[in-house]
């Protein structure tokens, strides 16, 4: 593991300077993720558009984004991948892998899509 | 891409066909509505995530084409509305005459402003539409091989607005753009940002068939056409109204303006094209007119040394193909014309002075030569300055100027003699009033004229003659200057020529040593000392230009003959086998004359001395006739006349002639002028000599030159044939010309004659079988 990806995963998990709150999932299977818009924008064209000045929604200085059609487990994997470039699918249930495949296609995360397809 | 579809069998959309259609319709209605809201600038009520997911689902469920076509329809509808509600109402009042109704093109400017807004709105909306249709772009557009949605938007804008089939938007746009540019050309202030916005818009749109920009297909040609027409008219107007410098300034300004215009709001690709048009219409088409403008064209600029204007013309005209050629030939013609004028003043002067020279106006001849060279040098200076200050030292111009100088310098058949006389003049009085550096620089310049001379051998002959006189008469001011000049000539003519000149210097030096020895010899000798001081210069006949093989006729006084004999014994005693001939025509003598008022020392030529000594035996008032003097002295007639002129008709009248007059004629009587007075004790009697050769002398020189050329030609032929052994006639002629042309231009007839002479003398033979081929006979 490179120092860079380790440090970035720390930023994802522990930092308090996040500026994005993402509501993921629906109903009882929902979770709130905190993230940094700079990183999301830099790593994904989807988020680059989503957070562009035309589309962005800001409440109390926080960017609010809803993603109801992805499960929190899958989104967590996506977020980790976005931050660190790493993904560990060992011992993950097939359901999650399938969810990851569909979600990475929607979000146009090509590398991730190809990777999860080959699992 | 099939791999992108759902993994086989693992996941399937819920199989509810009817609900799938309903889902599609629902999705599409929301998207279409959203796009309309975007067009209304109401995007803040929309959710990116939802719209994106809608489009994603439509593509995922293989409704990409329906989505794509639907989007096309919504955008087209919107643009049609924009055309009707915004663009068409902004049309300027009346197209063509709008410049009259709106002198400032305000209607047009407003139209552009509206278009700018419409365009900006469109691009902003398309960026947002692109955002929510990103999945369609990535997954559908690529496989279906259709333009990405943003590009689709550009195409729709092009076809619905810019090239609308329903409204004459295109006409108005092009007209307004051209009108704005025209206004700006006429010094109106226009709002460039509006123009630039429209131009940028046209640059972003692509023509479907040519794949070029709409700017290039729709606008550029029209722009260039109108510009051509505009500058065609302006060119005609300007040449009629302005003089050449003003005209060029205007053209400069126009070129600059067009360049700025392109930089500010047109495409860089247009720059060379519009530049060509301005150059063609304002420069190429009026080249000759501007060059030939009376009182202000190229020649007046040269005449008045308007270096700035000339420089501007050089730069400006250099932009077009023929520009510099036209300038060059005009300047060359001018140089030739000026040169012709210089030549004419000289010929008119020499013919007018032909009579004067004989009548004793001794300086005029040389003055004419000096003035001619000085004028040519001044002309050269002038054009060197033009070259330097206005023409960036352009080599092509230099070559053409040189040809012009060469042309008129060689038109004056006396130029070799004149140039030599000019050098002679400078080396004789050189240091008077001039520093050594100044003299040197004058001589340097003279060498540049020398280079223009075609007949260098003729110059060499004159130079040798003039140098001989300078040396023998002790007229050279500076030995360094003389040697400097020889150094310069060595560079130009080669050592062959200068070794002879150096030989002349050597003779002078040795003679001075010889005279020292001669004096010692006399001191030690028991012989009777000569009653006069004899100074002898021994010349090696091959170095000197005069014919030294025989002594000219002249009866020297006995004392002198005796002194000469003593010297001859002394000299031949040291150098046996040499032959001395006495050149009494070149000597000088110092004699003392007793006049009523006082005694004067007279420095005279040997001939004059012989003449004057005759009067020693005569009583006061007793005269001698021309025939008596001629008979007694035996001096050749031409020399005798010239010397009598110096004594009787020039500044110092030692003799009095009857009848009076400037010419010496048979029957004239001469008396010793006892009443002669002069302020100086020592008097130098100049021999009247027309410094520029008389026709007779010229013919003689010419003959000598021709003779020398025969030898040189033969030598060249032999040199070449010795090397090649066998050669065809024309090749041989060409080679001979090549070898000799640095000295003179031999004519083929001369060469042919020499070849024949060499065949006769069995140096060459004609080849058996081919009479056009020569063999060398060793």
Q: What does this entry show, briefly?
A:
The complex is a heterodimer of chains A (119) and B (778). Chain A has helices spanning 3-14, 37-43, 45-50, 72-84, 94-106, 110-117, and strands at residues 20-26, 29-35, 58-59, 62-67.
Index terms:
heterodimer, A: 119 residues, alpha+beta, four-stranded mixed β-sheet, 4 strands, 50% helix, globular, B: 778 residues, mainly alpha, 5 helical Cullin repeat like, three-stranded mixed β-sheet, 30 helices
Written account of the structure:
The complex is a heterodimer of chains A (119) and B (778). With 119 residues, chain A is of the alpha+beta class. Helices cover 50% and strands 18% of the residues of chain A. Chain A has 6 helices and 4 strands, in the order αββααββααα. Chain A has a 4-stranded mixed sheet. The longest helix of chain A has 13 residues, at 72-84. The model of chain A has no long low-confidence stretch (mean pLDDT 88). In chain B, a hairpin with a 4-residue loop joins strand 1 (588-594) and strand 2. Chain B has helices at residues 17-39, 48-60, 64-87, 98-101, 106-132, 134-144, 149-162, 169-185, 192-204, 214-241, 244-265, 271-283, 287-291, 298-303, 307-317, 323-358, 363-390, 395-411, 415-429, 436-452, 456-472, 479-493, 495-524, 558-574, 606-614, 626-633, 637-648, 695-724, 729-740, 748-760; strands spanning 588-594, 599-605, 624-625, 655-658, 669-672, 682-684, 726-728, 764-766, 773-776. Chain B folds into 6 domains: 20-92 and 103-174, Up-down Bundle (5 helical Cullin repeat like); 234-320; 326-348 and 364-493, Cullin Repeats (5 helical Cullin repeat like), CATH 1.20.1310.10; 509-574, no CATH class; 588-684, Cullin, Chain C, Domain 2 (Ribosomal Protein S5, domain 2, 2-Layer Sandwich); 695-776, Winged helix-like DNA-binding domain superfamily/Winged helix DNA-binding domain (Arc Repressor Mutant, subunit A, Orthogonal Bundle). The model of chain B is unreliable at 1-7, 95-101 and 352-363 (pLDDT under 50). Chain B is 65% helix and 5% strand. Chain B starts with 16 loop residues before the first helix and ends with a strand. Chain B is mainly alpha-helical. Classes of the chains: A alpha+beta (119), B mainly alpha (778). At the A-B interface, helix 3, strand 4 and helix 5 of A face helix 2, helix 5 and helix 6 of B. Chain B: One of its GO terms (biological process) is regulation of primary metabolic process. Chain B: Belongs to the cullin family. Chain B: Pathway: Protein modification; protein ubiquitination. Chain B: It is found in: Nucleus. Chain B: This is Cullin CUL3.
């Amino acid at each position: 593991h490179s120092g860079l990806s380790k440090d970035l995963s720390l930023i994802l998990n522990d930092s308090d300077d996040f500026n994005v709150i993402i509501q993921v999932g629906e109903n009882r299977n929902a979770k709130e993720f905190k993230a940094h818009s700079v990183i999301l924008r830099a790593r994904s064209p989807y988020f680059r558009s989503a957070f562009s000045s035309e589309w962005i929604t800001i409440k109390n200085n926080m960017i609010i984004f809803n993603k109801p059609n992805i499960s929190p487990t899958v989104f967590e994997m996506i977020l980790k991948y976005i931050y660190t470039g790493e993904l560990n699918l060992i011992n993950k249930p097939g359901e999650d892998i399938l969810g990851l495949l569909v979600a990475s296609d929607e979000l146009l995360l090509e590398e991730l899509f190809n990777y999860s397809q080959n699992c | 891409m099939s791999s992108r579809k759902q993994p086989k069998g693992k996941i399937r959309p819920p199989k509810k066909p009817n609900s799938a259609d309903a889902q599609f319709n629902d999705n599409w209605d929301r998207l279409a509505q959203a796009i309309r809201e975007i067009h209304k600038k109401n995007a803040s009520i929309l959710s990116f995530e939802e719209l994106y997911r809608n489009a994603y689902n439509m593509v995922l469920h293989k409704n990409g084409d329906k989505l794509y076509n639907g989007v096309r329809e919504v955008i087209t509808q919107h643009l049609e509305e924009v055309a009707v509600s915004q663009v068409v109402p902004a049309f300027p009042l009346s197209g063509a005459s709008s410049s009259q109704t709106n002198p400032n093109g305000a209607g047009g400017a407003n139209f552009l402003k509206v278009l700018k807004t419409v365009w900006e709105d469109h691009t902003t909306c398309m960026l947002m539409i692109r955002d929510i249709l990103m999945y369609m772009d990535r997954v559908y557009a690529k496989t279906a091989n259709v333009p990405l949605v943003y590009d689709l938007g550009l195409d729709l804008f092009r076809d619905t607005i810019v090239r609308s089939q329903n409204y004459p938007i295109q006409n108005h746009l092009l007209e307004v753009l051209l009108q704005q540019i025209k206004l700006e050309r006429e010094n109106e202030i226009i709002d460039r940002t509006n123009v630039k916005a429209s131009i940028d818009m046209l640059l972003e749109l692509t023509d479907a068939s040519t794949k070029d920009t709409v700017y290039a297909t729709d606008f550029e040609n029209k722009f260039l056409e109108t510009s051509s027409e505009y500058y065609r008219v302006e060119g005609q107007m300007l040449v009629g109204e302005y003089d050449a410098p003003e005209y060029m300034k205007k053209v400069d300004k126009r070129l600059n303006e067009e360049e700025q215009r392109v930089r500010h709001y047109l495409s860089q690709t247009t720059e060379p094209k519009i530049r060509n048009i301005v150059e063609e219409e304002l420069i190429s088409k009026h080249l000759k007119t501007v060059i030939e403008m009376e009182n202000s064209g190229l020649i007046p600029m040269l005449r008045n040394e308007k270096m700035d204007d000339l420089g501007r013309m050089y730069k400006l005209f250099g932009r077009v193909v023929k520009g510099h050629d036209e300038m060059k030939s005009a300047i060359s013609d001018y140089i030739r014309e000026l040169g012709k004028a210089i030549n004419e003043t000289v010929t008119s002067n020499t013919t007018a002075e032909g009579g004067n020279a004989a009548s004793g106006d001794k300086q005029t001849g040389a003055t004419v030569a000096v003035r001619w060279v000085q004028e040519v040098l001044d002309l050269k200076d002038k054009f060197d300055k033009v070259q330097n200050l206005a023409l960036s030292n352009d080599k092509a111009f230099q070559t053409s100027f040189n040809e012009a100088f060469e042309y008129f310098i060689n038109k004056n058949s006396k130029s070799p003699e004149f140039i030599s006389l000019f050098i002679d003049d400078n080396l004789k009085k050189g240091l008077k009033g001039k520093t050594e550096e100044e003299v040197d620089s004058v001589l340097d310049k003279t060498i540049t004229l020398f280079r223009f001379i075609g007949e260098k051998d003729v110059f060499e002959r004159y130079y040798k003659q003039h140098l001989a006189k300078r040396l023998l008469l002790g007229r050279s001011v500076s030995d360094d200057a003389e040697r400097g000049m020889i150094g310069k000539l060595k560079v130009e003519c080669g050592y062959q020529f200068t070794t002879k000149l150096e030989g002349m210097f050597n003779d002078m030096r040795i003679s001075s040593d010889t005279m020292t020895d001669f004096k010692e010899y006399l001191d030690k000798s028991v012989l009777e000392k000569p009653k006069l001081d004899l100074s002898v210069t021994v010349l090696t006949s091959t170095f000197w230009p005069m014919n030294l093989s025989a002594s000219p006729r002249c009866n020297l006084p006995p004392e002198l003959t005796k002194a000469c004999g003593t010297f001859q014994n002394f000299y031949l005693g040291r150098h046996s086998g040499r032959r001395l001939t006495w050149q009494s025509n070149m000597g000088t003598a110092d004699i003392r004359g007793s006049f009523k008022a006082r005694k004067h020392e007279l420095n005279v030529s040997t001939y004059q001395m012989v003449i004057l000594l005759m009067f020693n035996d005569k009583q006061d008032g007793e005269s001698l006739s021309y025939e008596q003097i001629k008979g007694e002295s035996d001096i050749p007639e031409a020399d005798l006349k010239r010397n009598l002129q110096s004594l009787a008709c020039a500044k110092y009248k030692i003799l009095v002639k009857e009848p009076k007059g400037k010419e010496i004629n048979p029957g004239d009587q001469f008396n010793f002028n006892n009443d002669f007075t002069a302020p100086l004790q020592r008097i130098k009697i100049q021999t009247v000599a027309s410094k520029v050769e008389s026709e007779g002398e010229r013919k003689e020189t010419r003959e000598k030159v021709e003779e020398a050329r025969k030898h040189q030609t033969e030598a060249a032929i032999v040199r070449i044939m010795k090397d090649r052994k066998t050669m065809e006639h024309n090749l041989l002629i060409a080679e001979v010309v090549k070898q000799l042309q640095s000295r003179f231009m031999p004519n083929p007839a001369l060469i042919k004659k020499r070849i024949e002479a060499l065949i006769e003398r069995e140096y060459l033979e004609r080849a058996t079988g081919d009479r056009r081929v020569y063999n060398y006979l060793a």
